[in-house]
Amino acid sequence: YFQREFVANSAAVRVSFGPGVRHRIAEEIERLGAQRALILSTPQQEAAAQTFAAEVGALAAGVFAKATMHTPVSVTEEALTEVAATGADCIVSVGGGSTTGLGKAIAYRTDLPQIVVPTTYAGSEATPILGQTKDGLKTTLKSPEVQPEVILYDSELVTTLPVGMTVSSALNAIAHAAEGLYAQDRNPLSTALAVEGMRAFANALPAVLTDPGNLDARGETLYGAWLCGTVLGQVGMSLHHKICHTLGGSFDLPHAETHSVMLPHAIGFNAAAVPDQLAIVSEIFDGSSPGKALHDFASRIGAPTALKALGLQEADLDRAASLATKNAYWNPAPLSREGVRALLDDAYHGRQPE
Ligand code: NAD
């Protein structure tokens, strides 16, 4: 993987890792010099957020449990009112990418420091990227204020992640690493993180599925999520992320599941253009080609493999192909509307990619 020339950027993030590490939250709030944390969650995870609030006592300014998919600006505005009303001086996000997204949206507007306690493998906590929606339009920005300062990876918190969400969230993370392997702005460090992140998932996921409460295996998957998320934060993504962004933003398909279905197809599509960079994918996931290896791995772990099972209509494929190729962006294999339409057709029917 040696590259003769490269530029590498790394964010200054403090990461603590281990079963039970969430109990260090008060210490982390104080370390930031903060005294009043607004604790964020989705409505589904409000009980967890309340437990955190009870644990930190006077260091909690309140709980705001209205985080939701795609970070709608209307929810962010409501949260900002809560920040002002409670005099919060830091944010604690307890949850997956949706909750972290809300914390980032607040930080973008207030520059408040963020502590993230991830409960999925989405990896948003490791990136300076914020996606937001307003009037049905999703836009993405990259800015240093958005990057969380502190991450507490606690394997005990992912033991409650249901099996379906576990496998699709893992493939969402693997997608960051796989596309990172051929990013134009990749560097030897991002490649090393991507390879190690994929290995962690390939190694630990089977054990997690056998015993979802296995803390060592859960810990290894969280380690993979951190590495893969860090890759996403460091280098640019291509076709796979563009298609998933289109399917999520314009057709309301679920985020992690869409990544699960599309990944083998997008990687299969690009494999001939960058065989050397993607050879490691066949090795790690044990298949005769990168696309086949990922497809078989996804099938083995019970991930969704067809877009039609996620609620997309066949009649939507034309528009999806047009939207995903409307604006030019870099991709290792040349892109055409017809090529992407064919790829979407394969993913729609759940065929095995090349
Ligand atoms: P999510 O945060 O929407 O969570 C899905 C559901 O699972 C929610 O109801 C949540 O409360 C629940 N949940 C989460 N963890 C749980 C647990 N341990 N036990 C039980 N239930 C749990 O899903 P996600 O896939 O983590 O995040 C998706 C969002 O994150 C998308 O909007 C995506 O665009 C964004 N994202 C952003 C980045 C970035 O860098 N900006 C990276 C990845 C994802």
Q: Tell me about the biggest sheet?
A: 6 strands, parallel
Averaged pLDDT: 96
Bound molecules: nicotinamide-adenine-dinucleotide
The CATH class designation of the largest domain is: Mainly Alpha
- The largest sheet has its strands arranged as 1-8-5-4-2-3
Q: What is the H/E order?
A: EHEHEHEHEEEEHHHHHHHHHH
Q: How many domains in all? A: 2
Share of helical residues: 40-55%
Strand % is: 5-15%
CA radius of gyration: 20 Å
Superfamily (CATH H level) name of the largest domain: Dehydroquinate synthase-like - alpha domain
CATH-derived topology of the largest domain: Dehydroquinate synthase-like, alpha domain
How many beta-strand segments? 8
In brief:
Helices cover 52% and strands 11% of the residues. It is of the alpha/beta class and 354 residues long.
Model description:
- By secondary structure, the protein is an alpha/beta fold.
- The chain has 2 domains: 133 residues, Rossmann fold (3-Layer(aba) Sandwich); 187 residues, Dehydroquinate synthase-like - alpha domain (Dehydroquinate synthase-like, alpha domain, Up-down Bundle).
- The strands form 2 sheets. The protein has a 6-stranded parallel beta sheet with strand order 1-8-5-4-2-3, sandwiched between helices. It has a two-stranded antiparallel ribbon with strand order 6-7.
- Strand 4, helix 4 and strand 5 form a beta-alpha-beta unit.
- Helix 9 crosses helix 13.
- The radius of gyration is 20 Å and the shape is globular.
- The mean pLDDT is 96.
